[in-house]
Amino acid sequence: MNWNDLDFFPVMGEKLTAENTLQLDFTAHNQALDAVNLSDTPDFDRFVFNQLKSGGKKYGIGGYLENRAIYRRSEVFATESANFRNIHLGVDIWTEAGARVFAPLAGKVHSFQDNAGFGNYGPTIILEHELGGKPLFSLYGHLFRKDLEKLQVGQEVRAGELLCHVGPFPENGDWPPHLHFQLMWDLGGNWGDYPGVTAEKGLEFFKGNCPNPNLILGCKILNSI
Questions:
Q1: Any long-range contacts for 20-23 (C-beta under 8 Å, 24+ apart)?
Q2: pTM for the whole thing?
Q3: In what residue span(s) does the M23ase beta-sheet core domain sit (predicted)?
């Protein structure tokens, strides 16, 4: 299967380009993070959106397989060092709360739930698709709670259909507003949830099960796909 031969609807309703999008760095190499109180969501929010404002961009993007420094903010990720989950498995699109999110390809609602708790996904939707003759699942995290109200498991979704909205904090899991977009070949029995971050020891498995979301997003400012 050649992903470049496939036609996907833009997840944010418009293509993510150098003109409207800034790549953000949340690794330990970004020393600017040292001045941010990551546990204080308004402070973290100001940091993110000041970067977008300074760059004159609508969206911030990045994160696939990024070894991040920001997960120290939440006990969701803070286990013993060997199991500390800090490698991101999706792509984050940082933008204002209320931004519309569209289905990139046809499918159906697999599951949804509010994964509540500081640093968690908050409201989450998982769609099931068929691609290249095999199932592919797409996950949309950090949404509005109201996006879940009228959904039904098995509900058909058309490519380009309005699916949900980027949620505000604290209901989005208490993050600066952004969409966590992730792909999975196999959900492993998960329902309305799937790990979005892994420890180093699980990386090879998750790399195989979670293809690069930029294969669908097609954002050229990210590393080549």
A1: 20/57, 20/58, 20/59, 21/57, 21/58, 21/59, 21/60, 21/61, 21/219, 21/221, 22/51, 22/52, 22/55, 22/57, 22/59, 22/60, 22/61, 22/221, 23/60, 23/61, 23/62, 23/221, 23/222
A2: 0.93
A3: 87-185
